[in-house]
Structure prediction request, 412 residues.
Amino acid sequence: MPDVGEGAVLAEHDAAVSGGSRRGAVPPFDAPGGLRRGAVPPFDAFPPHTRPEERSARRTLLDQIERLEGELSSLFVSTWPRKGFEFSVPSQGGPRMLLLSELEILRDDLAERVDHARRSLSDRTYVEERHRARIEEMLLDPSKHKWVRITNEDIGEPGCKHWHVRPRWGILGFLMNWWRVRISSGCPLARGADPH
Amino acid sequence: MTVAAPELERGWVDRELAEEFPALALWLMRVQARSGHSPDAVRRRLRQLSDRITGGHVIHMRQDPVPWAYRVFWRQIGIDPDTDRTPVEQIALDRLEWGGLRSRNLLDDALVIATFETGVPVIALDADKVGKAIGLRLTGDDERLGEAGRILSSRQIVVADEDRCLAVLSGEVSQDHGVRDSARNMVLCALQVKGVPEISIEEALWTVSDTLADGE
Prediction:
């Protein structure tokens, strides 16, 4: 696409603004090569609310929001399939151009949410690591972990598998202190309508 | 008789919006087509599309470049994308909820296919009921969506022509200017935000155009 100097575009727009009419003052700008650039409206829109001195602050805030949204998305993907995490950040009533103060609130809310999610995930993974270590201990010496049951959810994995320390041969194993780890075979199969 | 291929044109963007979001653009394509019942080929394509959408795919979608770009933009304009989903995420969630993509009519099906294939949201307007110059701007006080639609709050980002607001950026189209069965000419509008390449925009618009042409 041919590049068009923004200065020229804005100069045309400014001329239209100073003309005072709201509509129909400036035709759409045509770039060389025939491709319609269309960067300015063909009429005066409403006067800008954002002050020029705000622009750099707004740009910085928008960049920060972009980065935080990226971190939040990464955390969301990292937490799956774990449950119980909160990723929602309150809406600011869009779609609209937010005020500077609203952008700051949004940035702070996002930062807080990212921080909270990261700490929650860190805590959860610590507990999961302890559960994994315990599974190994259970397998090495089941009699020290009688009746303990650890599921896939406890170690942050999808599925229904679980490790359960149970006595071998029922009551006999219980009386003789013969323990073993039973590993479930996974989720029950989906069952259709009873053919009978 | 050869029919001229539709051309892409770039809509205008209000100066304040352009300064805030330099990469924001609205791309337009005017097509002669009509909606109606979706033919088998389009329904089959919807089915094939829905077979490709899995839970894992939906979870990771927000890290794909184009859906992610719209998530960021949604956030920057004050929408929580986890509550009011971006169009492509909404399609994927609907697929998981309903177990498939339901065919509604040719135009809606074409928009769903294009949006899901490219990640780019596309809306359609009745070309005979809208002005020549379509673009993006902020609303003023007490403006309505369309001629007699609901009152919009001020400084909302809308798709508009010279005289009125035609659609809200999140996808709600004015009832007066949306495409009805009687419409013969349409304007397809695709929103481009920072991080979305022009080729994705072109692909989205051409996908809708081709699907509509195939359905006739």
Summary: Chain A touches chain B through 47 residues (CB under 8 Å). The radius of gyration of chain A is 31 Å.
